[in-house]
Amino acid sequence: MKCFNTNMFFIRMLFWTVVAGCSSLLMAGCAKSKELYSPEEGNIYMPQAYQDRSVMTLYKMDSIQRVTFGAYYGGFNGPNSDVTVKFEVAPSLVDQYNITNAYLGYTYYPLPDSVYSLSSTTGVIRAGKQSSDPLFILVSGKKISFGYHYLLPIRITSVSGGNKDTSLSVAYFKLDSLLTRVKDLTSSGTLTVSDENRDGANAKEGSSKLVDNDYSTKFLSFNYNPNFWTKLKLNAPQKLDAYEITSGNDAPERDPRNWLFQGSNNGTDWTTLDTRTGEIFLGRQLTRRFNLNTSDAYSYYRLLITANGGADLIQITEWKLIQFY
């Protein structure tokens, strides 16, 4: 009898264990898993509104460059249907940006209308997607002037679905400096100077050292006067974007101080393209670039040095003619 009772006890325990297990499985099967959800779900904003994503990297070049902008649908799930997002350029925001960011120590100017266009002012976030189709700022870097900080504010004006995130609805596209790809045209020219080194053009410090692309040599003239010039005749007319002067290795009073940079197509009649007064080279063998703003091409270029630092001698390590491309 005891054996029977013991066997019945184990049978009951097994029964209830099975029942409990089945109940757990049934409950698990009935429970629905919750979809992922974010408090940002449905908020629409511009990713470029984050400050480090709105800096434009542009070159001073002829071909059109593209800067991307668009909208983003926040959260884990995209919209159930297409969302249309409209944008506008907002130059009126530049002044307030300058006031808010006065601690930077410089002023932003509106990017000129003449140097850019937008591929469209309407973007679409497709159903089930989170990023809109990309839109582009199309920029002609060749038309942008050096020496300025530019700003192009673009903002979301309306969305057909979701919620516009006003804290991230404006992207301030900033251009702090233009990059350049340079071509050195100096080697294609024939050099002459008004006062040669006393030992000749090919001497250790003769005029040939002025354009030899060797920064360990220099040109030195012992007869400086206010009408001193160096001249390059090119094989064909070329438009320049800049020129460079590299100071000598010693005696800063021999450095150029005042000069005219000029162009000509006959070697006689000269057009002044750049005027410099009181220029100082803060280091020895220091290269300084001087940008030009001209669209004309010339066969001759001349550096007319009207004053140096006060010495009877003048020296220059290198003189280069630069073209951007």
Annotation keywords:
disordered N terminus; elongated; DUF1735 domain-containing protein; 2 domains; Galactose-bd-like_sf; Immunoglobulin-like; five-stranded antiparallel β-sheet; 325 residues; FA58C; Jelly Rolls; mainly beta
Give a written overview of the molecule.
It is a single chain. This protein has 325 residues and is mainly beta. It contains 2 helices and 24 strands. It has helices at 2-30, 94-100; strands spanning 43-45, 58-59, 64-69, 72-73, 83-89, 108-110, 116-118, 122-125, 135-140, 149-159, 163-164, 170-175, 178-179, 182-184, 189-193, 219-221, 228-239, 242-246, 256-264, 271-276, 287-291, 297-308, 314-316, 318-324. The strands form 7 sheets. Strands 5, 6, 8, 10 and 12 form a 5-stranded mixed sheet that branches. A 5-stranded antiparallel sheet has the order 15-17-22-19-20, with no helix packed on it. Strands 14-24-18-21 form a 4-stranded antiparallel sheet, with no helix packed on it. The N and C termini lie far apart (105 Å). Residues 1-20 and 22-33 have low confidence and may be disordered.
